[in-house]
Every structure is written in structure tokens, then in C-alpha cells.
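Morning run. Coffee first, then this:
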Amino acid sequence: MLKFVCMRVFIAFIVVFGFCLNGFSQGLFDKQLPKRTYDPSVVDSIYGITMYEPLVLALGGDSIRKNGVYACNGWFEDAYLDGTIIHKGFYQSGQLQSYKNFYPNGQCERDFSSLDAMFAECKMYYATGQLKSKVKYVEGNAKEWTDYYPNGNVQFEEKMNKSMDYYEYQKYYYSTGKPSKVFELADKKKMVFNYTEYYENGAVKVQGHRIFIKESNTYFDNGEWSYFDESGSKTKTDKFDRGVKL
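And here it is:
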């Protein structure tokens, strides 16, 4: 009899503890349904609407959204104070699988979708509707990323290798479309990368090589580096050995 009573007390403790732990994990998203309203100030001028990211399993989010005492399943919406939709997402067990956020003017701010358990994509937009960023994720990490200027020209782009160990390239551009900095793999066997900076007129500003050391996950300036003025004349030369200037 004593054993039976003790077992019932133990089970009751586990149930209460489970509810407490689950409630703690909800954070700001606990009890926010039915539809919750937000002030337009939640839209950051640089990063946009980021408050839902902790709910995105594909990005490593570990928060859970609840509808009353149960985890959300299916489509749910949130709105601005005037009733305009700010968020529409599909939830499974309280976590976002795909969703869209919207600016106060109704334009889509971002469109995120999980393709499967490993792969996901996200497109972000300016309030004008112009594409701002495009990202492809693999197991929560960005494999390919492209940013755009408001005029539509590419601002930045990068790509990781297949095993996500190092960058295949990183490229920056001026708003005119001309390259600003280019960092790209030149010799995969030796892990040597070319690095070039440009002036706005297209002339080379800096040129050199970097090597990637996998053990430390670090890129080092290596070999000869050359520096030029805007007319193309070389102004100086430096030499490096794994980041150490000789």
C-alpha cells in the first residue's frame, strides 16, 4: 500500500514538473492566442521582424507557442493594432514550419519555408516589395546568402562548401553593381583563397592570398600582398606567413 501511494505521489510530481517546464519554455509566446496584436514599432529598421525566429525549429529555435494549454498546430495569425496581418504561420507541436511576416503597409517582410528536416529557405523584402535577402539553410546554418540594395543590385553574396567547413566565396558590391571585395577559393587542395579589393572606379585597391587552416577554422593572410592607388600604380607590398607580417 505504501509503495502504491509513493508511486502516485511520484507520478503527480512528474506531471506538475512537466507542466512547469513546458510553461517556462514558452517565454513571450505563451498564451498569445487567440490572435495577438502588435505595435508597428516591432519592425526593426535593419533586421525587420525577428521575434518569431526562436520558434523556428529549422533555425535551431527551441521555444514553443501554445494555444491555451496546448502547443499550436496548424495555421495561426497575428495582427497589428489596426487589424492588418503581421504574421501568418503553420505550426507543428508549437514550432514554426513555414510562415510569412508582413509590414504595416501589407507588403511581405519575409517568407520562410522548411523544405524538409534539413533544408530551409527564406526570402526577405524591403517595405517597397523589393527583394532584400535570400538565404538557403542546411541544418540551421546558412549555406548560401545574398543581400540586395533597394535598387535591386546585389550587395553581398556568400556560399559555404558542401560540408559547411569553409566559404567557397564571399563577394561585396557597390550600389552601382561593381565589385567592392572578392574572396574566393583558388586552390582546394592547398586551401588557398584569392582576396581582392576594388575602388569604386573598378581599379584594384588590394590584392593577395589567404589560406584556411581547418584545425583552427581560421583564414590567414599569406604570401605577397600588393596595394595600389586609384590610377593603378602599386604603392607598397607586404609579405605574410600565416597571418604574421614578415
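The first strand starts at residue 37 and ends at 38. Good start to the day.
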